[in-house]
Write a structure and sequence with these properties.
The structure holds two protein chains of two kinds. By secondary structure, chain A is an all-alpha fold. Chain A has a single domain, classed as Up-down Bundle (Cytochrome C Oxidase, Chain A), CATH 1.20.210. Chain A contains 16 helices and no strands. In chain A, α8 packs parallel to α10 and α10 packs antiparallel against α11. The longest helix of chain A has 35 residues. Chain A is globular and about 65 Å long. Chain B is mainly alpha-helical. Chain B has one domain: Up-down Bundle (Four Helix Bundle (Hemerythrin (Met), subunit A)). In chain B, α3 runs antiparallel to α4. The longest helix of chain B is centred in the last third of the chain and has 37 residues. Chain B starts with 6 loop residues before the first helix and ends with a helix. The model of chain B has no long low-confidence stretch (mean pLDDT 94).
């Protein structure tokens, strides 16, 4: 074979130039970046909408938007953040970018399907967002589309629901692609238990994507049929049952939380050993706890419904299972901490963000237990307490893990470094802003502030004001972080800037189009540091 | 560099996709189970309104079509191209018969005003409404799958004709066949649940 020159994946060598070369690419790294750019736009829009709500709640009574607009904004905030940002989230961006390199593959198993998933993602997002501008006004159901309201409101629910359906389809195909990739394309010698832990977490995630998403797909179709054809499944006046909707919805949407958080845990599991330069503690426990979370996470959905009307037996069973699912999550936290013990830790930005993740995730996880127990849940159900818990897990957990992953793989993505000092400053803003924004909502919730309310009693004012200020600080942090990463080119990055031991650090930064000129042969376990 | 080809991987992907389809219908089966439990008497009575004869004919037609797909795979493996195409054509013909029967069935119900959202339907007892809603929703979604399956098999048939599916490379045919069996399988569950339990 003739000597070939290898090109970085960022160079265009194909038929097309410029943007077309990206839109027709089947390279997993480029597709990962395309997901990231789209998600960043969605994320910023969602974050601004969130802060608008906080500003509206700055004082009791109406400030600058009416109650209907407020309902529309919390709905679209939820739809954007859940369906277009955190559900595809780390799996679509970093799963695509890093996983094939980590298992020593040239690409995913079905590269064209991968690109198709991205187009479905964009199409679904576009349809969901079109609900804001077409029909009888923005949907006002909340992102959960609870029946019977969602089947009766005059707002444009169908577009939002159909968008979510398409996004679910995209998620299924990504999951399918990853399962086949991990089964079929691991490098020679890489057994399952020699695989890095991020692919492990993606593997568990992918199974949830494949097995849970269809349920919400059919449920959303039923909502559309309910609105268009009056099939009556969820309409009590035709003999249907609204609680049935809640069950069907949460059968997917609770496992969806694990679709979001498992890849986040996987990323943290990559970062901690790298920056502690110490072999990960309890490799098998971490790997299998991902599977355990995926498995048990299937059977906890009704803990969203303690007050909806279920038998006592059903409630205590779901409560028990909810406590069980906390065990594998806690195993991971203990293993991360133990990995750091006696390690030679260097606190670089990815590690800092990972620490932020652990701290915030612990608060989110522990408050989740108080929500999982029956008595306390009845007290704080549908209050700001739930909002706080949820954001600690999803933003404090998934969001911070996303930032950690971004700072971790950025040198590999672009072949450039970034300014550490500014990254640390951004982290400071994000961390302080985050806690100011969400912690008061725990207190407000216990005091009795309901979630999704446009107005409130005067005694809740202080909490809301701290929250609003926290939100602004958080936004500043986001701006600093993005500006630091994307405003100007940093110094050239070495192939392995952090001393990582997984396969993606053995190849050039940025990687070549084929990742590996010759497939690596794996002879030992990952995380083997000198 | 060589083109990467992984037949086992492609089949694994197809099986996963079939799982997702089964779960998609699983949601509907769940609704069926709940509603049947709640309105068992009315479900029994409503099921009498369905034409079990047409249902049986369609079941036989679909089973036959599944058999011809399986036979066409064997034919292509043996290199008998014309036979493979012919067998797939019979499959598509069966799909046409199935759709025609469905047209008769649905057409009759719609002509007497029995369809979701009609005034007549809204006036019925709750159990009847839900039974017929489930009937239209489930068989409608199934029909959609049948149409998609037919399109896939048409493409496959043309590819056998042009030779791009051949004894050395027939994964697409196998996967198309798998999908067709799925369509068949779902019907095998729909048929007794809707037509036979009376």
């Amino acid at each position: 074979m003739a000597e070939t020159i290898t090109h970085s994946y960022l160079e265009n060598t194909g038929r097309y130039k410029g943007i077309m070369a990206w839109l027709t690419t089947t390279d997993h790294k480029r597709i990962g970046l395309m997901y990231m750019y789209a998600m960043m736009v969605f994320f910023i829009v969602g974050a601004l909408l969130g802060e608008l709500m906080r500003l509206e709640l700055f004082r009791p009574g109406q400030q600058f938007m009416n109650a209907q607009t407020y309902n529309g904004i919390f709905t679209i905030h939820g739809i954007i953040m859940i369906f277009t940002v955190v559900i595809p989230g780390l799996a679509a961006v970093f799963g695509n970018f890093a996983m094939p390199m980590q298992i020593g593959a040239h690409d995913v198993a079905f590269p064209r399907l991968n690109l198709f998933s991205w187009y479905l993602f964009i199409l679904g997002a576009a349809i969901a967002l079109s609900s804001q501008f077409m029909g009888n006004g923005p949907p006002d159901t909340g992102w959960t589309f609870y029946a019977p309201y969602s089947t009766q409101t005059h707002t444009n629910v169908v577009a939002a629901v159909f968008g979510a359906f398409i996004l679910g389809f995209s998620s299924i195909l990504t999951g399918l692609n990853f399962i086949v990739t991990i089964h079929r394309l691991r490098a020679p010698g890489m057994t399952f238990f020699r695989m890095p832990l991020f692919p492990w977490s993606l593997y568990a995630t992918a199974w949830i994507q494949v097995l849970a998403t269809p349920i919400v797909g059919i449920t959303l179709l039923m909502v559309i049929a309910e609105r268009w054809l009056r099939i009556g499944f969820f309409d009590p006046s035709l003999g249907g049952d609204p609680i049935l909707y809640q069950h069907l919805f949460w059968i997917y949407s609770h496992p969806a939380v694990y679709i979001m958080i498992l890849p986040a845990m996987g990323v943290i599991t990559e970062i901690i050993p790298t920056f502690a330069q110490r072999r990960v503690f309890g490799y098998k426990a971490i790997a299998l706890s991902s599977i355990a979370i995926a498995l048990v996470g299937y059977f906890v959905w009704a803990h969203h419904m303690y007050t909806s009307g279920m038998s006592m037996t059903a409630r205590w069973v779901f409560s028990l299972l909810t406590f069980l699912v906390a065990v594998p999550s806690a195993i991971k936290v203990f293993n991360w901490i133990t990995t750091m013990y006696k390690g030679s830790i260097s606190v670089k930005p990815p590690f800092l963000y990972a620490l932020g993740f652990i701290f915030l995730f612990m608060i989110g996880g522990l408050t989740g237990l108080s929500l999982g127990s029956l008595a306390t849940d009845v007290h704080v159900h549908d209050t700001a307490y739930v909002v706080a818990h949820f954001h600690y897990i999803i933003f404090g957990g998934v969001g911070f893990a996303f930032f950690a992953a971004l700072h971790y793989w950025y040198p590999k993505m672009y072949g450039r470094m970034y300014n550490f000092k500014r990254a640390n400053i951004a982290f400071g803003f994000l961390f302080v802003g985050f806690n100011l924004l969400y912690f008061p909502q725990f207190v407000l919730g216990i005091m009795g502030m309901p979630r999704r309310y446009f107005d409130y009693l005067p005694q809740f004012t202080l909490g809301h004001q701290i929250s609003a200020v926290g939100g602004l600080i958080l936004l500043i942090g986001i701006i600093i972080m993005i500006a630091n990463l994307f405003s100007k080119k940093g110094a050239k990055a070495p192939d392995n800037p952090w001393g990582g031991s997984t396969l993606e650090w053995t190849i050039s930064s940025p990687p070549s189009q084929e990742n590996f000129d010759e497939l690596p042969v794996v002879t030992g376990e990952p995380y083997d540091y000198k | 560099m060589e083109i990467h080809r992984d037949d086992i991987g492609a089949r694994l992907g197809m099986w996963l996709f079939i799982f997702t389809e089964i779960l998609l219908f699983g949601g509907l089966f769940l609704v069926y189970a709940v509603m049947r439990h709640r309105y068992s008497v009315e479900f029994h009575q409503a099921a009498h309104q369905l034409n079990a004869f047409i249902g049986t004919v369609n079941t036989v037609v679909l089973l036959l079509s599944s058999a011809t797909v399986a036979m066409s795979i064997t034919a292509v493996q043996r290199g008998e191209k014309r036979k493979g195409v012919l067998l797939l054509f019979i499959t598509l013909l069966c799909a046409g018969v199935f759709l025609f029967n469905k047209y008769l069935e649905w057409g009759h119900k719609i002509s007497i005003g029995l369809y979701p959202g009609s005034d007549m339907m809204i006036g019925l007892k709750h159990g009847y409404i839900l039974f017929f809603s489930l009937y239209f929703f489930m068989t409608g979604l199934h029909m959609l799958h049948l149409v998609v399956g037919s399109i896939i098999l048409t493409i496959v048939m043309l590819k056998i004709q042009t030779g791009s599916i051949n004894p050395g490379k027939y994964t697409l045919l196998e996967n198309g066949g798998l999908y067709w069996h799925l369509v068949d399988l779902i019907w095998i569950f729909l048929f007794p649940l809707l037509y036979l339990i009376t």
